[in-house]
Amino acid sequence: MQQGLMEQIEAQLGPNWVVGAPLGVGKANRLLNALYRHAKAHPHIKLTLITALSLNPPVGKSFLEERFMAPLRERVWRGYPRLEYLDDRESGTLPANIEVLEFYTRSGAILHNPRAQQHYISSNYTHAGRDILARGINLLVQAVAKHPDGHRYSLGSNPDLTLDVAPAMHQAERPTLVIGEVNPQMPYLGNDAEVAPEFFDLIVDDNDDGYPLFATPQEPIGLIDYAIGLRASTLVEDGGTLQVGIGALADAAVKGLLLRQDSPTDYHAMLGALDEPPRPPLNEGLYVASELISYPVYRLFEKGLVRRRVYEDETLQQLVNDNVLGDVLPADTFSQLVAAGALPAVLSERHLAWLERFNIADITLHEDRLHLGSAALANDLTDAATLAFLNAHSAGRELAGGIALHGAFFIGPSAFYKALHALPEARRALIGMTSVSEVNRIYTHYRLEQLQRQKARFINITMKATLLGHAVSDQLADGQVVSGVGGQYNFVSMAHQLPDGRSVLLVKATRGSGKSLESNIVWEYPHSTIPRHLRDVFISEYGIAELRGKTDSECIEAMIKIADSRFQDALIAKAKAAGKLPAAYQLPARYRNNLPATLENALAPFSGKLEPLPFGSELTDAELELARRLGGLKKSASSVTGKLALCWQALTASASSEGDKALAYLGLTAPANLKERIFQRLVLSLYR
């Protein structure tokens, strides 16, 4: 970090620093830590950090958890600079002169943290930039990639808010600074993410190897998750548009799409086991427009399933949609352009610029003649010779500027970042990392975006759903924020604006187990993220509920049919008591067997194809197995009877080769005290 930077910032901005930083892996960790340390050491500085999704390698909450996490942190997150403000916030030691405000957090990260809960900003992703500007941001810091030529930079993972916020800051009537911190480990993405040096007021470049982007391990996918994901995959239309959220349910939907394309026989057998009709393969391919580009979504692109390109021009996009033109131009391109009214008989400089922009033709105009290399043609597209020459000139050329995958930010495992680094230039050009205002809304260029986002399916996850179609995705009944609304409302709203768009919300029918088992499909809830007037499609492991345009009683019936059967009678009674279902209503018998065992039996024959980690894992097989066993230990220890059973297991445990390996990993081969001896026996008992 360059000397005197903090003093330079204070000289420019004064002692009140309102700092904005991107969510996820776009954070300039070194610079943020330097700002934080400086403010801690100089209490006269008032530091307000506004950001989202702050990430640090996990620390175990118990003795065994930490023993498990320590070697994992060293291997997976080696070299990653911990965000010091995040550690202090979690420990409750943030100084009084420093505030951390977030509009989205890692799921569950701030539960029961009063200061973090009080400083949460509830804001749709598309409004976050506006709200950050309204709070007086005067310093924006972001990790960037530097082009090898040294004259260009890329916002890499996070052009999402920066593309809108930075220009607005420069126009503000107050001193502001936009600082880029070069991190060579940030993948270089072009298109909208590429900016000139003048975009920044300062560039911080340590001229070293940088630091790793935060690697997020993939969540294991269970058979219940797959039941939901497979159903969701059936709603995606060939040649359509896809947006997918994050988490195991979303990953299961992506895996379903891969099975639909690559293993149709198995896929149709799985659908048959779930009583879903078969679906054809996606031969035209898909276009992705999703705020988050996750690793599973990227794999769709990598495998060629995401390949439908869109173009930033209404005329051209209409021609592509109508199959007049394709990504590779046909032999009669100019004839088709004239017939479609896209070109007049006489071309102007404006038309020639349009043709050049999309690589349709390289034509110059001089003395009323069209020039292509040494040829000079009449500027008259009704002239047979001119038209024939232009058709031959354009035949087989590839349209320029096509984007197959639009996103506002990316995050994932280390394999994802490596793949992005290794992309050939032609493939890299098909990825358009851009502003969240471009991806999450369609107000700016409605007609063009409607043409691009044909047959859009917006697939997201919700925690709970009511029988009347409310969705609860971001906070608990008492107001405790679990994560944040993010872009979910934006995508649901878009689904209703687009003529053939659909919002698909995935919800597990239940949560918990034993006495703590509860239904996620409920009669009512004190809070909703998505109001019922925007209800559309809900999917649980037990089925698909189509709610758009339905009456309240029809919605209630549809939701009860996808609820867990252990809760259906109580839900029916609630609806009848409210006068929302006829008193004589009876749930058809075919929906009375909505139970986990039924689903697991149905999908068990396909367990080899429905693997828990289809997109890989940062953890080794041994670590995954140890994590599974330690999870069982934690669950057993949550009850008195479980604790007694563990005591007996520990007393009777004996050594085994697998147990010895686990002890070595946890550093318990040679226990140093009584506590470690007890845990050694407990671990050995897991490998009986």
List keywords for this structure.
eight-stranded mixed sheet, globular, 688 residues, single chain, 38% helix, alpha/beta
Short description:
The protein has 27 helices and 24 strands. The longest helix has 16 residues, at 621-636. Helix content is 38%, strand content 14%.
User: How would a textbook summarize the main sheet?
Assistant: 8 strands, mixed
Mean pLDDT: 94
What percentage of amino acids are in beta strands? 5-15%
The class by helix and strand makeup works out as alpha/beta
| Span between termini | 53 Å
Quaternary state reads single chain
Would you identify the regions where 5 or more consecutive residues have pLDDT less than 50?
none
Count of individual helical segments? 27
The Rg value, from CA coordinates, equals 28 Å
- Judging from the principal axes of the Cα atoms, what is the shape? globular
Fraction of residues in H or I helices: 25-40%
- The count of strands amounts to 24
